[in-house]
Design a protein that fits this description.
- The chain has a single domain, classed as Rossmann fold (3-Layer(aba) Sandwich), CATH 3.40.50.1360.
- It is about 30% helix and about 20% strand.
- It has seven helices and eleven strands.
- A hairpin with a 4-residue loop joins strand 7 and strand 8.
- The radius of gyration is 17 Å and the shape is globular.
- The protein binds 6-phosphogluconic acid.
- 6-phosphogluconic acid binds next to helix 2.
Length: about 270
């Protein structure tokens, strides 16, 4: 974990998963709008899992306010990670995103930069790195700077496909790597944590009581990223945002009247 010594953690607690999804949809639209206003485009990396699915469905729903507000033509969509499975596989993050979002919104194929899970994991990681370098027009050892990275967190403290005690935790020079996850007996492809930390804005979307125990460990407990890889996420901006539901936030310090809490970390 490089960047600054200080980290300001802002967490927003919503009463239930549905209102968490609404706040996250609003956050996506706001952050995309800010990036487009400043840079002409919004390059966003999204995660898989069940929590983002509800958010994507809201963004895609023509009967909800966000679909019309999102400037889709100015978005470039990337993935934080992917399972090493074909794009039509039930476990595929791309498939989940296609069904919940891509099939329902006006994104052209060239705006969608998927990780090719159907390939050998090492080859998929290398091709994704090439895609990142070409689409961000990177030179030399430059790192892509996403405008927004949306993360989830597992109850084991993993994020992206950075699982406890796996090799990818130690990767600091590559943009994306293949990571074998013994806990799942599976291969994944994931952005590396320095790339995630280089983003202009990083936020977690976390729901459910099964995350309640790990959250305070990650946010306020001793730094132990081997055991709690989510602690690797320390954005160079010095700010990290969490959008939580009440069940996930049950063991965090109480929020203010607006449902917002702030924690400061130092290392
Ligand atoms: C994945 C995700 C992963 C996810 C967490 C939380 O590929 O599964 O990138 O890191 O964000 O496992 O998943 P839930 O949102 O389903 O709890």
């Amino acid at each position: 974990m490089r960047a600054g010594r200080q980290l300001k953690i802002k967490y927003y607690v919503e009463p239930d998963p549905a209102s968490l999804a609404r706040r996250a949809a609003q956050y996506f639209v706001e952050m995309a709008g800010e990036a487009i206003g400043a840079y002409g485009r919004a390059r966003i990396a999204i995660s898989g899992g069940s929590t983002p699915k509800a958010v994507f469905e809201l963004l895609a729903d023509p009967n909800q306010p966000w679909r019309a507000r999102m400037p889709w033509e100015k978005l470039d969509l990337y993935w934080v990670d992917e399972r090493s499975v074909p794009p039509g596989h039930a476990d595929s993050n791309y498939r989940m995103t296609r069904e919940a979002l891509l099939d329902h919104v006006p994104l052209r194929p060239k705006q969608i930069h998927r990780i090719e899970g159907e390939l050998d994991p090492q080859a998929a990681a290398a091709r994704y790195e090439s895609e990142l370098r070409s689409s961000f027009r990177l030179k030399g050892a430059a790192s892509p700077r996403f405008d927004l990275v949306a993360l989830g967190m597992g109850k084991d403290g993993h994020t992206a496909s950075l699982f406890p005690h796996t090799e990818a935790i130690h990767e600091m020079s590559r943009l994306a790597v293949a990571n074998h996850v013994p806990q799942l007996d599976a291969w994944r492809v994931t952005l590396t944590w320095p790339v995630i930390n280089h983003a202009r804005s990083v936020f977690f979307i976390i729901s459910g009581e099964d995350k309640a125990a790990v959250l305070p460990e990650v946010l306020t407990g001793p730094l132990d990223p081997e055991r709690l890889p989510s602690q690797l996420i320390w954005p160079s901006s010095g700010i990290l945002t969490f959008i939580l539901d009440k069940a996930a936030a049950a063991l965090l310090p109480a929020t203010d009247a607006e449902g917002c809490g702030v924690l400061e970390r130092e290392r």
